[in-house]
C-alpha cells in the first residue's frame, strides 16, 4: 500500500444512517467532512426489528469495508438511529419497530459487527456535522439545527459541543405538539402554501428563539432545498439559514461522533 493511501485511511471512518425507509452508509473523510466515493443504501427491512436492522447494517459495513479508502478493519463505526439515545440505549422508536424501546443498541451492533459501534440520534448527528463542516462552522455559542421532515428533529450545539437529545419538535405550542403543525409533512397534509406554512414556522421559531436565544438557526430536512420559498418570510432576531450537507449530514455526523468518542478526530 502506498504511503499516501495509508495516510488517507487514517482519517476515514464508516458512518451509517438508519431511517424509516432506508439505511445508508458511506466512508467519511474526517478532514473534509465529505464522503469518499458513493454512499451505499439498502431498504429498511419490514418489520424493522433490531435483528433485521443489524443484519442490514452489517451488509453495508461489509460492502464499504471492501472499497478503496476504507478504514482499517476493526475501526469503530458510527450509526445514527431515529430515537432518543441515552448511553447507547434507545428510549423511543420513531418510524421503526417498537421493540427498539429500551434496547441496548450500542452493545447489539458492537456484537454483530465485531468492532466498536457508537449510536447517536439522527438529528443530533446531522447537527454535529453541520456545525463542524457545514453552515454552522466557526460559530460560537448556541447553534440550533432544526430538521423539517416527517416530524421536527433538533440538535442543540454549544461552542461546537453537542447537548444530546434535545427534542424541540415536541415542544407544546398553542396546545399542540409543534411538529404536528410545523413539520414538512404537516404542510403537505394540510395543503398549505409556502406563505401559510411560514406563519406556522414563524410561531415555532420565535418560541424556540425566546427559550434559547441562539446565535444561529440552521434548517435541514428535505424542504431545506426550497428554503428560498419560506425562510425570507420569517422575522426573527436570530439569523436563520439552510443546511449545507443535505442527505449526507447523518452519515458524516455519525462518523464524526464515533471519531470524537474514540479520539480519532480532533
UniProtKB/TrEMBL annotation:
Alphabetized InterPro entries for the sequence: ATPase_NBD, ROK
Top-level lineage group: Bacteria
Pfam families from the UniProt entry: ROK
Gene3D superfamilies reported in the protein's UniProt record: 3.30.420.40
Recorded family membership: Belongs to the ROK (NagC/XylR) family.
Entry protein name: ROK family protein
Organism whose genome encodes this protein: Sinomonas cellulolyticus
